[in-house]
Design a protein that fits this description.
This protein has about 325 residues and is of the alpha/beta class. It contains 15 helices and 11 strands. Helix content is about 50%, strand content about 15%. The strands form 3 sheets. Strands 3-4-1-5 form a 4-stranded mixed β-sheet. Strands 2-6-8-7 form a 4-stranded mixed β-sheet. A hairpin with a 3-residue loop joins strand 3 and strand 4. The protein is globular, with a radius of gyration of 22 Å.
Length: about 325
C-alpha cells in the first residue's frame, strides 16, 4: 500500500497538469509491457518499426518494465500545460547530487550495466539522457501529441467539474480503482509499501497520463512535488482511426466537409488541429463549425486561450446512424 499523507493546506493546493515528458517516459515502459492486443496496440504497431534502428538501451536502463523510475526524469510541470522542451530543460537543470542519489537507488533496485557510468559522471549523464529522450520523443510521441493532448484536455475538464461539484472527495472517488481518499491521506492499493513524507505545503499534482495505463504512478519523496498520474477517461478511443463518411447519409444531409468534422470529433479539438487534420483553411472551418454548433451537432468550450470543439449527443446519434453497421440493421 502506498500512503500519501496530506495536510489541509496540501489539500487546498491540489492542481492538475499534463506533461509531454511524462508521456514520453511512461511510453517507454509501455513498449516493454504492452502487447499489440492492448489498448495501445495501434500505437505499438506504428512505432515499433520506426524504433527498430534506434538504440533504446539507455532509456530502458532508466525506465525498467516495473519498479522504480528516477523521479528527476519526470519533473513537475509548473503550469497546467507545458512544452516538451521546457520539460527537458527541467531535467537538464537537476542538481547533480540528486541525479547521483536517484540513479544509485535505481541501480540497487534494478541493476543495469549502463548505470554505474551514469552515476560516475552525472553531468554527462544528464546530457545523454536529455538527448535520448528528445530523439525518442520526435519519433514515437510528437506525431501523435495533438491527439493525446486533446484527450488529456477532455479529462481535465471532467475532473475540474468533479472537483467543483463534489470537492476533493468527489474528485478522487473515481480517479482510479486503486485510489482511496481517507480525509487526511490518499491510499493506493499496490503490492509494495511506501508512506510518503513530502515537504509540507506543496500540495498535490494530478497528471492524466495516457501511457500510465492500466495503473497509476506516484512521486512521494522529498524534494519533489507530490505527484500522482492516472489513465485519462476515454482512453479506448485514442487510437481509433477515423471513418470515411464522404459517401454517407450524414454527408448527404450536412455536406462532406461537415460530416468529416463530426466524425473527427471523437476527442475535443481546436480549430487549428481540425484544420490540420482535414486539410482546410481555419476560416473555412470556422464557418462550418459555427453552422454545426448552431444546429446543436457540436459544442465548444474554452480551455485557456484555445476553444475546443466536441460532438454533442445529437452529433453522436447522427454519426451512429451513418455507420455501416447501423445501416445494415435499419
Amino acid at each position: 500500500m502506498i500512503t500519501l499523507r496530506l495536510s489541509p493546506d496540501d489539500l487546498s493546493r491540489i492542481r492538475f497538469a499534463f506533461s509531454p515528458v511524462w508521456e514520453t517516459v511512461t511510453s517507454i515502459r509501455a513498449l516493454s509491457n504492452s502487447t499489440t492486443g492492448s489498448v495501445h496496440g495501434p500505437w505499438l504497431r506504428k512505432v515499433r518499426p520506426l524504433l527498430a534502428q534506434q538504440d533504446l538501451s539507455l532509456l530502458k536502463a532508466l525506465i525498467p518494465p516495473v519498479s522504480y523510475i528516477p523521479d528527476f526524469i519526470t519533473p513537475a510541470p509548473p503550469r497546467r500545460s507545458t512544452s516538451f522542451e521546457s520539460g527537458l530543460a527541467a531535467i537538464a537543470a537537476t542538481p547533480l547530487p540528486l541525479v547521483v542519489a536517484e540513479l544509485t537507488q535505481l541501480q540497487k533496485e534494478t541493476p543495469h550495466p549502463l548505470l554505474p557510468e551514469l552515476i560516475a559522471k552525472p553531468a554527462e549523464a544528464l546530457d545523454r539522457i536529455t538527448t535520448a529522450l528528445d530523439d525518442y520523443w520526435r519519433l514515437a510521441i510528437e506525431p501523435d501529441w495533438r491527439r493525446i493532448r486533446s484527450l488529456l484536455q477532455e479529462d481535465l475538464a471532467f475532473r475540474l467539474d468533479e472537483l467543483s461539484c463534489g470537492g476533493v472527495a468527489g474528485l478522487l472517488r473515481n480517479l482510479h480503482p486503486s485510489v482511496t481518499f481517507r480525509g487526511d491521506r490518499i491510499e493506493v492499493d499496490k503490492p509494495y509499501c511506501c508512506d510518503g513524507q513530502p515537504l509540507p505545503g506543496q500540495g498535490l499534482l494530478l497528471i492524466p497520463c495516457v501511457f500510465t495505463w492500466p495503473t497509476t504512478l506516484q512521486i512521494t519523496a522529498a524534494p519533489h512535488l507530490p505527484t500522482m498520474t492516472y489513465p485519462p477517461r476515454g482512453l479506448g478511443r485514442l487510437w481509433e482511426s477515423q471513418e470515411d463518411l464522404s459517401e454517407s447519409p450524414l454527408a448527404d444531409l450536412v455536406g462532406k466537409t461537415r460530416a468529416s468534422i463530426v466524425s473527427h470529433l471523437d476527442l475535443p479539438m481546436s480549430t487549428t488541429h481540425l484544420a490540420h487534420q482535414l486539410g482546410v483553411s481555419a476560416p473555412t472551418l470556422s464557418v462550418h463549425l459555427s453552422i454545426l454548433r448552431n444546429a446543436g451537432v457540436v459544442d465548444s468550450r474554452r480551455d485557456g486561450r484555445t476553444v475546443l470543439y466536441s460532438r454533442t449527443t445529437l452529433g453522436n446519434h447522427l454519426l451512429a446512424a451513418s455507420r455501416p453497421a447501423a445501416l445494415a440493421t435499419a
